[in-house]
Amino acid sequence: MILETIVTTWDLNGVPHIAPMGIHTARDEAITILPFRPSRTLDNLLATGQAVINASDDVRVFAGCLTGRRDWPLVASTRLPGYRLRDALAHTEVELLRVEEDPVRPKLHCRVIHIATHAPFNGFNRAQNAVLEAAILVSRLERLPWHKIQAELDYLKIAVEKTAGPRETEAWGWLMETLEQFKSNQGIS
To answer: 6 by DSSP, 3-state: which?
Structure first.
């Protein structure tokens, strides 16, 4: 199963990095993180061997990280010398066990060190799901054909227009600004 999360890592100097990422989970509670190369998440995880997986229902964090807004409040993690999102609903601290090398997207197999729940998860509304899907599209602008991106955005926009609250509207706007800039840079009309 793939869960859309926010992964916090830190470098050897303790400088944190926040990135949205789909992580793979298994029944035995193993977690696999698959960052694309190049990636600060990959560099940090390989250097420290540790990360924190954050569960968040604030889609602004996902959209913000992809649009240059990475300044989200952090607090110290519980058992590892790193960080978690202050407003995470839950977090899971993991330790790197092994790496399956790949030139594009290595598989980082991790074991769970600690899990904590901070607030209840009440579910996502349709706009939150739409923002998450749009964020995934933005993260793959260089990998997907524009016609596919545009078709999916046209459909996702319906959910945003019908069910978005202020947070989802703001996050959607950030993603649309990034997409417009990409279109302009690529000469797409």
So the answer is: strand
